[in-house]
Design a protein that fits this description.
501 residues, alpha+beta, seven-stranded mixed β-sheet, 16 helices, 23% strand
Amino acid sequence: MPDFIAAIDQGTTSTRCIVFDRSGSIAGLSQREHAQHTPRPGWVEHDPLEIWDKTQDVVRRALAEAGLRTTDLAAVGVTNQRETTVIWDRRTGKPLHRALVWQDTRTAELCAALAQEGGQDRFRARTGLPLATYFSGPKIRWLLEHVPEVRAAAHDGHALFGNIDSWLIWNLTGGPRGGVHVTDVSNASRTLLMDLGRLAWDGQLLEAMRVPAELLPAIRSSSEIYGEGQGVLQGVPVAGDLGDQQAALFGQTCFSPGEAKNTYGTGCFLLLNTGTEPTVSRKGLLTTVGYRLGEAPAVYCLEGSIAVAGALVQWLRDNLHMIERAADIEELAASVSDNGGVYLVPAFSGLFAPYWRADARGVIVGLTRYAERGHLARAALESTAYQVSDVVEAMREDCGVSLTSLRVDGGMVANQMLMQFQADVLQVPVIRPVVAETTALGAAYAAGLAVGFWRGLDELRANWKADRTWQPGLALKERDRLLAWWKKAVTRSFDWTTEPV
């Protein structure tokens, strides 16, 4: 068998291909950013063809960096930004509209209308999800209702829907010339269209959302051979598929109930493994499928989704021009000894877990003449840690599990001030692994298990090694004081608007 596995990691701002060896070490990597289109306030779109072109390019570049050919790959796995919605023509392979990104809020009116019967939790018992602009189902309906090309293609039976995983797998396996139209259980669980217990599209949900079943991909496990690669990955089995946050959970080897990871990226996503039975949240968390390996029972998670984390640092850089590079935020925040009483709640498009307040908007509170740039930078970093603390508190109340440690990954884990403050606020150790690219690693692991590249979960656990651990060092009384002010700041963001954006 070949000695390497490839993973395509298609994220919100960029696409990467990473080649791993049997130890889970990186042999080759390439990454390219793609454009963010914001035609109106609250609208966020991507060009699916640009993403596909850059996917092919990073695959070629990663193989070249590793000095490998496609024949050196045992399989490829795919992981993706979840909920981002693509509809394309099966005959031509051309998208019928730009992709609607998970951050896009144009479906706010639709979600409010659907919630008039049964409230925001109308479908939660069946899907594990609240009615929110976040998910794919309302985005599909919006495209059907507002884009004539989508509506006509759906009527004629030529339209296909997918999150980005389905779009990439379809193209990787041939596109219009026999491409496989599939998704995995983790991505399907983010649509508001799948029955969480049956792991199948639900007719009543489809009817309520007015989505034709013919558009939808077949739901498969996260680890099996879906088809054979064509073109840039000619002959390579396409054998793993996981939403990006579930892939990070898998790459962090959180295979046992009670194990959790947090990914610090554009947003922030904390997943807790709850085992083979779904746990319905009473505290504003999402119940989602973590993964399913072949014919084994699915593993479920509770998830706390935070819309704005790294995106807040980008906002300080690009909109306020406070820093030149995202990494500069740490030095600026370290120029002051504390936050100076300043709190920043980044509810740019409402608040996700555990509040789910579409009416919230971003606020900066506690400003005095004493406050300066450093305090604002520190408040921005601290806001991420506070939001994570809110999610952890909700998880503890939902299932009675108290974290003993938190495994972390994503771009922001390079920020040592943030990681230390996160440990202080949670009062548990925060652990960063040696291989920080856990999202891509999880997709590689899923693909490798499907083709026998790795023998089982114990082998994957043996690959995981800690790189750095941050121990809590803040007095509990001071932690509680800071959190109380944070929670007060959050309430100031509520009821700001009734207008969808």
